[in-house]
Amino acid sequence: MMGEIGGLIYGVTIWALPLIFAVTLHEAAHGYAAHMMGDDTAKRMGRISLNPLRHVDPFGTVILPGLLLAFGGVMFGWAKPVPVNFNNLRPQRLGMIVVAAAGPGMNVALAVISVLVAIYGLPLMPREIQGWMLLNLDNAIYFNLLLAVFNMIPIPPLDGGRVLVGILPRHLAWRVARLEKAGILILLAALFILPILGQKLHMQLDIFQWLVSGPVEYLGRRMVEILQ
């Protein structure tokens, strides 16, 4: 019994810890960037914080990803959105780009740090924890690259969609911005409905594999090659 509990705790820590750190710092980076660009909404609401409880959505960050992982599905989830008043950002359009890109940028930085620790720091650690740390670092690289790549898909309300709105000429930007409400439905359809339809039609319609899983694997390999 104690062995089963120990195994459960071990399994939870190697998955939950990297995910919680990745999500927490992603959201805190959004809030900090907004504050630097002139909007203190996130700061006033306590969202520029390293406390995971201020960012984690119990269902979207923990329960849903855990269930999908357990049943071999697409890794999908969300955190509590960081409140930003885009009207306060100065300059406004550049501010929108900086705030949106800050979260994925933080995840890329965390993935790089995890690779460096795995290569150069792990051999210096006690042997008793090296295996546990390696699994944590491996999952940290995966989760952070997953968050970075997925969130940069150029569809609102994802970060990539907000970056696209900030870059496009105004007459095109407002058209993309209007997808904000429908964007999440488009994503859910692409991630879950298309693969099922593809199985029925005997076609490869796994958009997640094309847009996210493939790039995540490629970036992970390239990071290791470059930083070794």
UniProtKB/TrEMBL annotation:
Membrane-topology descriptor: Multi-pass membrane protein
One Pfam family recorded for the sequence: Peptidase_M50
Record-given protein name: Site-2 protease family protein
GO molecular function: metal ion binding; metallopeptidase activity
Cofactor: Zn(2+)
PANTHER family: ZINC METALLOPROTEASE MJ0611-RELATED, ZINC METALLOPROTEASE YWHC-RELATED
Domain named Peptidase M50: residues: 140-191
Taxonomic path: Bacteria, Pseudomonadati, Pseudomonadota, Alphaproteobacteria, Rhodospirillales
Keywords: Cell membrane, Hydrolase, Membrane, Metal-binding, Metalloprotease, Protease, Transmembrane, Transmembrane helix, Zinc
GO CC aspect terms: plasma membrane
Keyword Transmembrane helix in record: yes
